[in-house]
Amino acid sequence: MDGKIEVLGQEWLSQGFMKLAKYTVRHERFEGGMIGPFTREIVMRTVAVGVLPYDPIADKFLLIEQFRLAAHLAGMPAWQREVIAGIADKDESHEDLARREAIEEANCKVTDLVEMTRFLLSPGMSNEVLILYCGRMDSSQTTGVHGLDNEHEDIRSTLYDAKEIPALLEHGTTGNGPLMMALYWMQANRERLRKLWR
After folding, report:
1. Overall domain count for the chain
2. Taking the model in full, what pTM does it have?
3. How far apart are CA 131 and CA 165, in angstroms?
């Protein structure tokens, strides 16, 4: 549906690291007419970028693992296995952000970025869009513990054989949506990438 939307008001409730706004809106009903006005609180975020580094020669990919308080509070494992990701803190392209985050979080240089997908992380409460890339890497020098001290990061990077993807997905050990999305994409597109990057 591509219906009529009226934003009647916006009020900032918080403008810290997480910006929270209250909107008053009305919108068209599926069966005609308008519904509202009503209010919704929305977490406002800039675009986030994630990258799954992949070595097509060794057929290996890299994941990171770090502490996530929100995961702990949700009753999930506090140390989450993830794709590399971040938000822009300067004027840079999405591709440059992916490359910078790969260096900061995993000391991993990625090239030949291919966009996997872009999606809303939590459309019921936030406008945050995640753009996922697969980036070519040389897996011979990419493991260890990294991160920025001033951001309290303690990030472990680990290589996985591409043949492990089905087991990671089947056993539910991925923990979060962006990683699952990246692994499903890799499972479907791995052979195409290997041909493209050889």
Report:
1. 2
2. 0.89
3. 21
In the set 6, 92, 115, 151, the catalytic residue is: 151
* Residue 28 annotated as catalytic: no
- Asked if residue 78 and residue 12 are part of one domain, the reply reads no
| 24 bridge partner residues | 9, 39
In sequence order, the 6+-apart residues with CB closer than 8 A to the CB of 148 are: 104
Sorting pLDDT into bands at 50, 70 and 90, what band is 26?
very high
On whether both 128 and 190 belong to a single domain, the answer is: yes
Omega of the bond leading into 37 within 30 degrees of 0 (cis): yes
For residue range 109-163, list pLDDT tens digits in order. 999 999 999 999 999 999 999 999 999 999 987 678 877 777 777 889 999 999 9
In terms of residue numbers, what domain contains 35? 5-44
